[in-house]
Design brief:
By secondary structure, the protein is α+β, with helices and mostly antiparallel strands. The chain contains 1 helix and 8 strands.
Length: 122
Amino acid sequence: MCKNVTRNKSESTHFKTILAIFLIAIVTISTCAWFDKSSHEQIVTEYTVGWNDLVQNRIIAKPIKDCSGCFAVLVSNYVYAVGYNNSYIILKQHFSDDTARTYYFVIDIKKERGAEWEKRSI
C-alpha cells in the first residue's frame, strides 16, 4: 500500500529558505577577492612591492607604525621596474594606463620618514 505523502506549507517554505541561503552563499564566495591572484615581496628593510588582482596595480608600500596590517602607499600603480640597494630604491612608473610617459622615483631609505622621494618625468 502506498502512503499519501504531502508536505505541509512550513516544510516547503523551510526548504526554499535553505536553498536561497545556499545559493546566495555560493554566489558570494565565488565573487569575492579571495580567489584573485596577488604578489607581495619585501625588497629592502620593511619596504614592499606588491599587487592585488592585476599586475598593473603594482605599488611600493611601507608598513604604518602602530597599525597591524596597515601600509602607506609610497608610489601607486603602475610600478613596472624596481632596483634597490641599502640606501635607495629606484623605480619606474607608468601612471595608470598612460605608457607614453615614464616617471622615475628615488626613495631614500636612510631618511626613514615615509614618502621621502623625488619624482622626475621623462
